[in-house]
Amino acid sequence: MVPNPAKDRAVVSTFLAEAGRVDVELVDLLGRPLQQIANGVLPAGEARWTMDLDQVPAGMYFVRVQQGGTVRVAKFTKE
After folding, report:
1. Got the DSSP string for 12-32?
2. pLDDT by residue (tens digit) across 21-71?
């Protein structure tokens, strides 16, 4: 995620080892989904999404990337 911390936008990027369905969400510290960033089938390789943070209050969050049985989580701060 760049930048981190961010004010109004951030870019989420990840490398997908194989093609398949990918779900990307912004979640609060309790794991509750706040924003769906991406949801769909993608090819293998690098993937990027831009998060609009205008409606997100300042605080700490997680970005959760799920593909098949693999879940990756990154901590994120909104200023």
Report:
1. EEEEESS-EEEEEEEE-TT--
2. 999 999 999 999 999 999 999 999 999 999 999 999 999 999 999 998 899
Alpha-carbon separation of residue 31 from 7, 16, 17, 25 (angstroms): 21, 23, 25, 10
Alpha carbon distance 77, 79 (integer Å): 6
Handedness of CA 61, 49, 13, 66 (dihedral sign): positive
Tokens of 70: 């693999």
